[in-house]
Amino acid sequence: MRRTPFALRTLPLILFAGFLALPVLAVLAAWLPLGPDGAQAGAILREMAATVLPGYVATTLWLSVLVALGAAVVGTGAAATVTLFDFPGRRTFEWLLLLPLAMPAYVTAYAYTDFLQFSGPLQVGLRNAFGLEGRLLPEVRSLGGAVWVFIFSLYPYVYLLARTALGERAAHLMEAARLLGAPLPRRIAVVALPLARPAVAAGVALVLMETLADFGVSSYFGIQTFTTGIYKAWLSMDNRLAAAQLATMLLVLVLLLLHLEHRAQRRMRFAAGGGRAGSAEAQPLALRGARRWLAWGVCAVPVVMGFAAPVAFMLRPLAADWSVLPWERFMEWAWHSVRLGGITAALAVAAALALAFGVRRHPDAVTRGVVQLASVGYAVPGAVIVVGLLLPVGWLQAVAPQWGVGGLVTATAFGIVWAYLVRFCAVALQSVQSGYARIPPSLDDSARMLGVGSAGLLARVHWPLLQRSAAAAALLVFVDVMKELPATMVLRPFNSDTLAVVAYQLARDERLGEAALPSLALVAVGLVPVILLSRTLRSRG
Predict the structure, then answer these.
(1) Is the CB of residue 221 less than 8 Å from the CB of residue 142?
(2) Contact 219/373 with Cβ under 8 angstroms?
(3) What is the pTM for the complete model shown?
(4) How far is CA 311 from CA 317, 510, 530, in A?
């Protein structure tokens, strides 16, 4: 068989990876001393350091520290409870604790604001019932309110990883420690928690990446973080260089967290293997009396605060007055969301198949590096992607206005789909690569011996075995696109509002009752992968 030249087979992959990595590279290039903007970089940085930058740093730092501590406590406590102990309802709580994954953090923020604000039903009811006046509860739109929302929206990342680490060996070693005479508190402190520490660190890193990338909660609550500062610098002050510098600082923080998460994932290997979790001596410890009530509380509070209460708050306006809900435009918003999600999911799966197939056929260092370059956008916040995408587009529009690049990116679906692919192509790639890991290389050797070319190998051998992985990848990308807010707000075509954008705009305009309908639609879409994930975990257990 004739071998494809190295340059011919790698050039398309390199071009596509560069297409996905361009926003990140453009943000980093904004610091280069090139052109008139380059000469102003130092002056703009000094001006921000004397005015807004200390506030952005302090607020982002406090928010990150408090969310990290809260998510670690809530997620680890829930994981240890359902893994190490047995009590009525434990199997139900195992999947109920995943439900907050279906709730976008900004939707949770809208729900709590509608119910807890000064004019909300809770404070109004308390004032009427007890004859009180003034504010009765702390302001929900504050740093503390944002910490509360992020903790109960994002703790499932810690819960999932800690539960996996504890389930593999913790129960077995806890029983061994019990036989050696160690009391329950000592078994938890000396055996269970050290085993879960790398998993908790990895989960906290993921929580912090989501917190730093958030725009909806921070903007709606008026919190001055790096993400809100990027949008203020670009849209309000029309200073693209300041926005690029802030985006670079945020990107450095996210890459640092990504590095820490990878290190924690590697350290999690020590908890694998070594005894069967289902063996007789490694069964969870049965709880009775007050300890059983405590276990119910540890598991029920996150579910109520992160899912049940926000959903109930949003259902209230639907049950009270259906006439105020924007039913006539809901289908239009839903169609725009579904259309963009479907297009992006199809393109992301096709790109993931091409990249994974390239690594499968030629696993050399260049091909692997190209695939890693194509995956770099997953850890990048949407605000950074927007800045990195518009910087080269604006430069090209100024140099060659006759090409109409600016209109193509900002007035059509091309720009927003590009941003989605940068952000979520790695999600599809990870799912497809996991599917390829289950296909033995001997099938490729047999196909080549029978004279099957590359196209035939992918279409007739790999694709039938990858259909489930591709479907899972498409579903994950579709749901992520439906919930994505920062890039969609800036890059969506005119008169093409999505459910996420409409929910944000209605909530910002204090029309929280009308925002309930698109918000609940996003929750319903997000429930689909959560249900599939819970089924997968239960089948493995």
Answers:
(1) yes
(2) no
(3) 0.86
(4) 11, 18, 16
